[in-house]
Amino acid sequence: MSSKELLNFRKKISHLNALLESLETIPGREAELESCENHEEVVSLARSWGFEIGKRWGE
Fold it and tell me: What does the alpha-carbon distance between residue 39 and residue 26 come to, in Å, rounded to a whole number?
């Protein structure tokens, strides 16, 4: 894993952790996430909340 890949990996994990925390602290978010029917909807919803989780860490 290159340094750039490691940085991207850490950034994605950070965004995923922050997204999980927001599910516990912001009412209604968990239900919104549960209503998603596919990966693209999850990524789009997360992006609308300010989280970038769709990009693969190796890209």
Answer: 21
What is the residue-level pLDDT of the chain in tens, covering all 59 positions?
899 889 988 999 999 999 999 999 999 999 999 999 999 999 999 999 999 998 776 66
Q: Are 33 and 45 in contact (CB under 8 A)?
A: yes
Of 5, 25, 13, whose CA–CA distance to 51 is shortest? Answer: 13
**Which H or E run includes 45?**
helix 39-48
Which is nearest to 42 in space by CA: 20, 25, 57, 58?
Answer: 20
Q: Whole-angstrom Cα distance, residue 40 to residue 52? A: 12
Query: Which residue bears the tokens 């995923």?
Result: 16
